[in-house]
What does this fold into?
Amino acid sequence: MNDLLGTDIGTSGTKTVLMDTEGHLIAQDLQEYDIITPRPLWAEQWPDVWLDAAKASIRNTVQKSGISKEKIAGIAISGLYGGSGIPLDENMKPVRPCMIWMDRRADEETKWVLEHIGEENLQEITYNGADPYYGYTKILWMKRHEPENWKKTKLFLPPNDYVIYHLTGEIAIDYSSAGNIGGIFDMNTRTWSKTLMDQMGIPMSMMPQRIVESTDIVGGLTKKAAEELGLSEGMPVIAGGIDCGAANIGLGVLESGIYAASIGTSMCAALISDQPAKGKGLIV
It folds into this structure.
């Protein structure tokens, strides 16, 4: 068991690669899809489009490789910043499409946060400010504009964690995805901020309570998922995280003084620092 699968759920497509432990590419597959833009500056995706694409991409990669499933040691899954997260009902079914990172509808909610909570308070707790980019402003938009959907929603999950749930039956979120939601994650304690969530009226129960490292094993493939994908039941599924963070590791951003730019549907610039990156702008 020496080969490893990696899947990235992107804005316009989901990619899977199979590599050996020396970094040699064995097989790969891409499944493309369109972004839903019902209005100017709005951007959404139905979660099962991501799920179906991930399953097809993984299955096709395994088939293309021609190697035995017993040789594959595990899979890690990264994903785009799913903005609000996927709103799920009590049966873990999506309530509505997920508002993704490029959705800019939450202007009024951003202004409310700046007025009632303040950017300085946000930065001290979350190391981030207020902007429609962040998931918590989109969550507030849904609460304000879609009360019926809000009542149905029991949990928000990022795209990669939604796929992991369907592969393992386990609910978890990694630190990079939690921090990326923005104004409700306390970077000092590395957990959800009850203070900020209470101020915004977002129930703590709507956030995954199991928070894991990107390198942690969330669970093993269920029998159903293993049969669908052509993999071994119980194969480890690793948390992964936000796509840009995962890409930066692949680009070699492993110590101070190394910088990288990752260019796709958006562009992310990254560096490593031993100091908190507090300040205005989009810092995640």
